[in-house]
Design goal:
homodimer; alpha+beta; 44% strand
Chain lengths: 124, 124
Amino acid sequence: MTPDETVTAFIQALERMDMDDAMEMLAEDVTYDNVPIGAMQGRDAVRKTLDGMMGATEVDWPVARQAATGNVVMNERIDRFKLESGWLEIPVVGVFEVGDDGLISLWRDYFDLETFKNNRKALG
Amino acid sequence: MTPDETVTAFIQALERMDMDDAMEMLAEDVTYDNVPIGAMQGRDAVRKTLDGMMGATEVDWPVARQAATGNVVMNERIDRFKLESGWLEIPVVGVFEVGDDGLISLWRDYFDLETFKNNRKALG
């Protein structure tokens, strides 16, 4: 798989909420950085963070645009989480690096934290 | 020039604060969208917004990563503005589309607005 295809497969695994499959695409010491919140290190930390997916029963992360050069992939997405009270949405750009071993070593998401909080609040 | 080269040249023109040169790389009806703030339409609106560059005397937008596929280019940057009281910095990802005419038709920046405001405040 190319880095581009790896990132696409990773997003699709997250959308299926298939954490085993998704985690297999991450390097053991992956950096996962939600820019306005902060970075964490390691597959286990990522898994712990994503496992609950904020209590979503369904996850839908449509990618509007994706670009790849060398081992760098970036995608522009709307991350959507189905909560009890409705769909929570947040516009995101993800920056990924894929190692020569085919594993994602960097996943950094840029988004506006206040937009996320306001959209969460609006759902009640 | 490839779309990738066009976006690089555009950022470099902004760093020189050469607005004439920068504006020539934009489509007449360009969309310029600062995601947490909102979008504007047209080269004139962009020029008006950028002309002051927030009172900066120097601008430095180092690109850490850039990826391009087809007419889509994305770059991960730190946008730095030299103000009287010091350097104001904000981490940004830009999403660009370049038309067949070689002009930038979309420029959409993702960043955390509160980080920007806090960094501005910290400079006094």
